[in-house]
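FAQ
Q: What does a multi-component entry look like?
A: The components come first, one per line:
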Amino acid sequence: MALTVKNISKKYGNVQALSDLSFEMSRPGVYALLGTNGAGKSTAIRMILGMLSKDTGEVLWNGKPMDPIKEKIGYLAEERGLYPKYRITDQLMYFGELRGMKKADAAKAIDYWFDRMGLDQYREKRADQLSKGNQQKVQLAAALISDPDLLVLDEPLSGLDPVNADLFKSIIYEQTAKNKYIIMSCHQMPVIEEFCSDLTIIHHGHAVLQGDLNEIKKGYGRVNLEVKCDGDILPLAEECGLTPKEVTPDGVHFKIKDEQQAAALLKKAVDAGLTVVRFDLREPSLHEIFVEHITRADAAAKEVL
Amino acid sequence: MNAYGWRSIFKFTLVQQLKTKSFIISSIVISVLILAMVILINTLPGLLAPAAGTVDDTQQAGQAKTIYFADASGITASSDFQTIFEELGTTFIGSDGQDKVEEYTNTVRNGSNSVFVLLTYDEATGYKVKSMRPLDGSVSPDEANMMASVASSAFTELRLEKLGLSKDNIPSAIAPISIVNTIAGEEEMTFAQQMINSILPMITSLILFVMIVLYGQLIAQSVAMEKTSKVIDTLLISTRPLAIIIGKILAIGMLSLMQFIGFILVGVIGFVATLPLGMGLTSQALAGVDDVGEFTEAFGKMFSQFSPLTILMILVIFILGFLFYALIAGLIGATVSRSEDVNSAMQPFAIIGVVGFYLAYFPSFTEDGGQGMLKTLSYYLPLSSPFSLPSGMLTGQLDMLQVLIGVLILAAFNVVIALFVARVYEQLILHTGNRIKFGELFGLAKR
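Then the predicted structure of the entire assembly, as tokens:
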């Protein structure tokens, strides 16, 4: 199985919402679609799912044009939606039937997901009688009810408390373990780092960064140094030619040229008799990469203007 | 355009709407109101009327015991009327000319249970029969009127007799003359037929109009709710927009039909069950008509139109008419992004419905009895044909070919509207923000 997105574009009036987006998901796992608010992520997702018409381009699933109605697809929309006055069990049964499930299979799946998500006690409740978190669980159950091969999760963890966020994460892990294809849009970068193999960062409708997350990070090298010690490290850092990027009670953050600079600073600290509590040399976080690319794209856009 | 999944949407929408409190409560309340109404029609007049044999009744029967009669007509004499009034069980005291008028007036005014009937002639105003009753109220105005009426009828016949007409010729001389105005070559309509032709379009139009307004609003709200609650995103990965709107419209159409049939059943059962209870309005209405047979004949003629084909055609017209308006309502629901905007967005819809309704209904009251140009137009214009075609069939004003032409025009318009709605609905369904204006819809359809 593989998902191929080729040069999809969408224009609303004079606004180019998405321009020539292409990516391929050739192996199971989590593919991240990242971007600032209004970048074009949801438009891309709706086009992939056939909900919005494409001005250009195509979306292929297993080499054929994707028809979401015929394929096994699950979708958790960014803006949660349930019928407020209807029983949640009826709604899930309806969504299951719309996905072509038999009544008995849908009922079995509902039992499983209610149990898995701790929703059993709310079976007879209407959607508007549930908390926001529980409504979100029902929505995830609706996305998973037909055991989809391709799962699209638009901001799955937004608004969840830590316990429910962990529950959602564990379910996403289960799905990846079952070799499902997952496209996830999320603003919580640690979550993306936790799950995703490949990503695309979209800004103002354009892809500004794409590829394997590990490869992208490796490309940057280990240029982030965080140091915490019981004395003042800043004079020693200055001697090594390092300027602090950020000073917090938890330590000092330096951007270094190479690992030799870090080794020199560590030697000076030890020689000065400082106790080094933490010395962390690492690749940039996804958060840092994201911010860097968005800032760079904005600056480039300003230059053009 | 694919409508895969419409059955699931139809089933779900129908079942969920049946479960809603508003549907259950409105069904119960309206059923109770209908039941109460038909029971009242059948029983209230009987209950309010005084029972036979009461004191009032006997007093009424014996009120006018003496008739004073003064004949100043110059043609007849008071003695000509004596037998007629004595046959009514009264004592007759008569005189000719105006000599006794003052005496009789005073006697009756100050007396009791007597009526003074005065017959006069004036060149300017003609003959006049005047009845006078006592001051004490022992004779009712109705009873005094009845005496005058008896005198008037008798005077008409006596006058002709005195003028030389034989008794055999009198009935034909006094037979009423009615004036009829028809289109050349067409059968004349009786009064009863004219009444039915006027009332039936009103009833059938009103039923469809109420269904369209009530359930059109429900369709628009349902579409808008799916948009505002964002359920639409979940639905769209499983089915097409066309299937959503078709499933929804058919479900609410079925709901309206079920509720409507339920109301009719409640009404019929209540009416039939309470008919033997008393002298109701129905019986009184029939009793008050001069020629009940005329109505029976007119109704018989109407019901004779109820062949299986007619019933099928009426059903098809109702469904097509409902679909026509329901599609427009669904489109309006899709133009708004907030449920609270539905009511204001539905105002043009209500206006369209009212125009169609009145176009079908009002020509029935024109001088030509609803057979003119405007009425003909209402049969073929899709806006009004759902309201006017059923009554046109039932009253026999349209033959089957004319009905078929009307139905085909309506069906063709439905297809055009459905294609337009399907195109625009796909564009609108994910639209958020300001309400789409009417003119913008055509732009969306072209995309």
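Q: Is there any commentary attached?
A: Sometimes. For this entry: Chain A has two domains: 3-217, 222-282.
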